[in-house]
Design brief:
Number of helices of chain A: 19
Low-confidence stretches of chain A: 10-19
Distance between the termini of chain A: 60 Å
CATH architecture of chain B: Orthogonal Bundle
Distance between the termini of chain B: 24 Å
Largest interface: A-B, 36 and 36 residues
Largest sheet of chain B: 2 strands, antiparallel
Helix content of chain B: 55-70%
CATH class of the largest domain in chain A: Alpha Beta
Helix content of chain A: 40-55%
Number of helices of chain B: 14
Number of strands of chain B: 2
Oligomer: heterodimer
Strand order of the largest sheet of chain B: 1-2
Number of domains of chain B: 1
Structural class of chain A: alpha/beta
Mean pLDDT of chain B: 86
Radius of gyration of chain A: 23 Å
CATH architecture of the largest domain in chain A: 3-Layer(aba) Sandwich
Chain lengths: 435, 296
């Protein structure tokens, strides 16, 4: 009798938990070693408990992932969790398709996220919309071996220092002292942020949809014009000037001696350099006359999409909780070079015996960079059709690098075309308020 | 006509046989076309949160946008250069293959093979062939630094694109033109030769006039093909750059719609492009098609 009662109870409990369990999908856009690390986290989550199961689906790139999410949402066939990249933040905030994580999980200590990482993904009033996931920021990489060969013993930290070093490298016969791809995120956004320069009025759009671009009149315009001159002088190379055709590959292969790149590519660079060259990584360079401010958080964050039932949301919460765990963030950092962005994880790393291990090299310097003094212009970018703006910026500045127009004309055109995008975005979302 | 319809005894059978194909065409062509035209009158939010009817405002904006006209201009230049070459080069090959010169039999075979290669794969291969350091131009670049770099120079990128398109167009046009040449009765050449016409004279006065229907077909198809099928090549070789120099209209639509989430702008441009292609084909049929004599 007792046994049968027990069996019934167990069976009932089993049913109850089965009803709550859910299979959910998580879409991400990364490839390469980052994808391997994401898959490992999914497997670890599924192995750690039996209640929920997350199915992680790679979409090939951030853009493709977002395209598919839009189509899937319209067809009401969208995943519960999706990773979106920084530039899509405003589109998502106004889409009405996502549930802010802070509303969904008010009990979580969201304050533990460092300010630099929070600001990009929170509303103007400070509510976090998405859980930061693979966070990166811009760092400065050098090939110390090549620098020393040219007689440069101290790693430069300022643009003036970089150019001096580049001249020495060139004099020593180096074909590619500094390499960049001229990408918007690297040469405009992160540059403006750490030099405390606005990208658009209304504090980069945080104070309203009626912002206007100012990139053609800030010091960023001067820096971009300098890049053109330095390229003519043979100090700076673009991706297309390199044999590798890709600037990260050119640096990793030893073809180029210095680059500005995301912390997310540290693992690949360290692996490529292993045994051949010595790698240094530091905060992105400043012009000497400017005070250093924080760099933006880059990479991507995870959003919870609307339109799912309770068990699925529970599963999503469990997975997000799992990803926030210090040991998960640490293993992800070690595998990729992405930066942990919660203070508890940073404390754990600092107290551990591996604090100075190279695998956490980017964590320390990346967080330091994002933790520099902030202004209202360095919170993030809240501008509409921003992905399109990035395309416009690349198109116009490439023309300047090719000598078809001056950099000032390129930036004037970019501002003009960018403002048109902002006005159309404003009209598309007429009547909606910035959250 | 009556003899054809008597092929099927049942009245509904032809309709039933056609239905699956028609359904596919409606689903994957007419519905999206309708949607594009519909969206071009609205400002549509990507996630479907709402849309606002704006009448002709999208068209006004697109038609007054310098970038749109620049992309259209590039499309027309590409259409003229790439499709002319994509017909002329196979025409020369077909005439050569038809003359029974050495190796013309294996050549007839081999020249058809590229037909089996997807545009994207061709793009990857050509990006490599025209790579400034390791490609064909590598040695020239070593002698004259900066002579060739499709990653920096827009003209170089455009030339790469045209070359890849012409190459990918060879098999189909070659087959059509060769078939046309083969169908000319040999007695015509013999008569021309008897009258003292040299090889060039026979090409221009006998062969070309007689394969006009095939030439016309290849030109019509090439003109429309070059506008749309170039997408795969752009996406794999240049990505529209450098500096937008290879952003043809079909690629701009993709970038605006799928990378920039501007559904209304992309739809408007799609509608305009569609009308343009239809007008182009109509003009060709009206002005050229009527002059072609299909009788032999």
């Amino acid at each position: 009798m007792k046994i049968s009662t027990l069996a019934t109870t167990v069976a009932l409990l089993g049913c109850a938990s089965a009803a709550q369990a859910a299979n959910i999908e998580f879409w991400y856009g990364n490839t390469g070693n980052v994808e391997v690390a994401i898959k490992a986290q999914c497997d670890a989550f599924n192995a750690s408990q039996s209640e929920h199961k997350v199915n992680c689906v790679g979409q090939g790139s951030y853009e493709v992932s977002m395209q598919k999410a839009i189509a899937a949402y319209r067809a009401k066939n969208h995943p519960v969790l999706i990773q979106f990249f920084d530039a899509g933040t405003l589109d998502l905030m106004l889409s009405g398709a996502v549930e802010p994580v802070q509303d969904l999980m008010p009990e979580v200590k969201w304050d533990s996220y460092i300010a630099g990482a929070r600001a990009y993904y929170e509303t103007s009033k400070g509510k976090l919309f998405a859980q930061p996931y693979n966070s990166s920021t811009l760092l400065f990489y050098t090939n110390k071996t090549e620098l020393e060969k040219a007689g440069i013993s101290e790693t430069p930290t300022s643009w003036e220092g970089i150019i001096e070093a580049a001249r020495k490298l060139k004099a020593a016969g180096h074909a590619c002292p500094f390499v960049t791809d001229g990408d918007t995120w690297r040469v405009l956004e992160q540059f403006s942020a750490r030099h405390g320069l606005p990208i658009a009025t209304k504090h980069n759009g945080y104070d309203g949809l009626d912002a206007e671009y100012v990139i053609n009149s800030t010091f960023a315009a001067k820096h971009l014009a300098n890049l053109v001159e330095w390229r003519k002088e043979g100090l700076v190379r673009l991706a297309a000037d390199t044999k590798a055709g890709n600037y990260t590959a050119a640096f990793n292969a030893g073809e180029c001696a210095m680059m500005e790149q995301s912390s997310g590519s540290y693992a690949a660079a360290a692996k490529a350099f292993d045994g051949k060259y010595e790698l240094t990584v530091g905060m992105a360079p400043m012009y000497k006359d400017y005070t250093r401010h924080n760099t933006f958080v880059g990479g991507a964050s995870i959003y919870v999409m609307k339109g799912h039932d309770k068990p699925e949301i529970e599963a999503a919460k469990a997975f997000l909780d799992f990803l926030r765990k210090p040991e998960q963030q640490m293993s992800f950092t070690a595998a990729t070079g992405y930066v942990p962005v919660t203070t508890d994880v940073l404390d754990v790393i600092a107290k551990s015996d591996v604090a100075n291990s190279p695998k956490y090299a980017t964590a320390k310097v990346g967080v330091e960079s994002m933790n520099q003094p902030a202004t209202a212009d360095t919170r993030g970018i809240r501008l509409g059709f921003y992905v399109q703006f990035r395309e416009v910026f690349m198109e116009e500045t490439q023309k300047a690098f090719a000598g078809q127009q001056t950099m000032q004309v390129a930036l004037d055109n970019t501002k003009k075309r960018g403002d048109q995008l902002l006005r159309r975005f404003e009209q598309t979302y007429k009547g909606k308020q910035l959250p | 006509m009556s003899s054809e319809s008597s092929l099927f005894s049942h009245r509904w059978l032809p309709a039933l046989l056609l239905a699956p194909l028609l359904l596919l065409i409606v689903l994957f062509f007419y519905v999206p076309v309708f949607q594009a035209f519909y969206w071009s009158f609205f400002l549509e939010q990507p996630f479907g949160g709402g849309s606002e009817f704006v009448g002709l405002q999208n068209f006004q904006r697109v038609l007054s946008d310098a970038e749109f006209w620049a992309a259209t201009g590039r499309t027309v230049i590409f259409m003229l250069t790439a499709s002319a070459l994509a017909v002329v080069v196979p025409l020369m090959l077909a005439i050569a293959a038809d003359r029974k010169i050495g190796m013309s039999y294996p050549a007839r075979n081999i020249l058809v093979w590229p037909k089996g290669i997807a545009g994207a794969s061709i793009g990857v291969v050509f990006a490599f062939i025209f790579n400034p350091f390791v490609g064909l131009m590598g040695p020239l670049n070593a002698l004259f630094p900066g002579l060739w770099n499709p990653g920096i120079d827009g003209t170089d990128a455009f030339i790469t694109l045209v070359a890849a398109h012409v190459w990918s167009g060879i098999p189909f046009n070659f087959v059509i033109l060769l078939a046309g040449l083969r169908s000319i009765p040999p007695t015509m050449y013999q008569a021309a030769a008897m009258d003292g016409a040299g090889p060039w004279r026979r090409i221009f006065d006998v062969q070309l006039p007689l394969i006009m229907p095939q030439l016309f077909l290849t030109f019509v198809l090439e003109f429309t093909e070059s506008i749309t099928s170039v997408f795969a090549l752009i996406d794999t070789i240049t990505g529209g750059g450098p500096g937008g120099s290879t952003t043809l209209l079909v690629y701009k639509i993709y970038v605006d719609g799928f990378r920039g989430f501007d559904l209304s702008g992309a739809s408007t441009q799609t509608a305009i492009l569609m009308v343009f292609v239809l007008l182009l084909a109509a003009c060709q049929f009206y002005f050229l098609g009527r002059r072609i004599n299909y009788e032999r």
